[in-house]
């Protein structure tokens, strides 16, 4: 935790969401949580770490990352045509605190209060190299799982719910299932669903049997995959896509939908087994559509929190951290 | 089936096992089934199809494949320093009958007698282009699964067992589980186990967490993977490898063993559920070792057929087909 909180302009903060493959920077109104201006970059942590590695003699790691961040803040200033006061701090979450990030922070442990979260936060004081306060947020670990970024998303998502308790599904490349009880995150699990979908569809023997020129459609093929995942061994069901293609010419778009249903259905079979009382679903609009359809096939009710168009759940989560730091 | 059987030298036949990534040619003594001489090539069907595709104007597909086969027979003659009588036929099984093979043959259907197998066989008469009889063997299909090559392996393997009935596990890149009842193959399932192991270990986020410089070891890590596969959701258990690596520095060789155990254990969970009375295990010595260890962890008894060092199960299976053709 931060020991000495500096005094600064409380009306705004900068929200930096630095993930594995993307970089997002937003100017946030701290009272409402609304995004005033936003820019994004393809220089995710992975790509950025590579460029630091090849230039590592020229500057220290943290400085190298802060220099990039400084330039992005300038770009944000240009795009909104106004100078941002130096007292406006930047809050950084996601993979920026990982071993390939600006500075590796140890994971914080469960349970995590969603109202007064105690995360490990690294405070970088303003200096010549970077002119404002920066706060780097750690991830969370259980005894056998880890996350970086989703803990902040959860804070933001839950902040928009009257009752925070329930079972959260954050659909993504590495989906997360999170249990919240008495306003505390108490357990979570990560699933390699999205990554395996991409890998199998593009690199396995099934690549010849699935059409990846467009996104999966949550129709019959998708639903059949979700259902089969409840009965069939996954390693066999995967090969059946190839067999159906050879024997019955099932159609490569349909096979792609079935593969998507099979993997999402496998992930969600855990939810079926655990019968949570209240399921809260989140994800980008594309993924959320598949997960919603799969949950329906499986007879599981869920809610989808209403987040306004000018709100972002990472920024909403960072707002809680910002309020903790400034109060 | 073949309508007119030509008369030829019955003491020997040539056994060609043309798989996706390998080509094997053997001279077999038809009475004993023993291999007299063998050569192998890395030009599997996949690679060979590519080279035909880039030369397709120069010759017809079947001729192109037969020309290669002819050269390999010459190479076999050179390596055993004796001319092979033109009356000695060649029997070809594996992917050579697939859509990328020398000629695509429709799959034969279940059930398949292991004593008097009725497979689709394409007979190529001797001609100027290829001087001996060639017999191309089809694969087998069920309503939702396919194989090419393993049906011939099964014939050979079962020919060395006093009782052929039981549940066969043919461990491989795409493992097969086969049910044999009243001396007939009645059902089978394919599992993508081996291919997924290679894909996940080399191309996924886990590539950084597993050491692939040597083969998995069937020790503690492997056994833990087999056990966890019976309890855990596979998509989550996979990610736990990354988490354990980050949190507990479990060791990359151990993580590789665990990954192997997890995938083989997932495949074999189907065997646990179906409780077959008699399990017959086959596979190359490396794979067989893992499967044997996994079956032991799961408390499933199995037998391992005794095949002599100078015998090959594909050649033993082709011998049954050869005897059918010549009798």
UniProtKB/TrEMBL annotation, chains A, B:
Biological process (GO) annotations held by this record are: D-galactonate catabolic process
Q: Name one GO molecular function term.
A: 2-dehydro-3-deoxygalactonokinase activity
* Keywords of the record: Kinase, Transferase
Q: Does the keyword Kinase apply?
A: yes
List the protein's name.
Answer: 2-dehydro-3-deoxygalactonokinase
Q: Which organism is it from?
A: Fodinibius sediminis
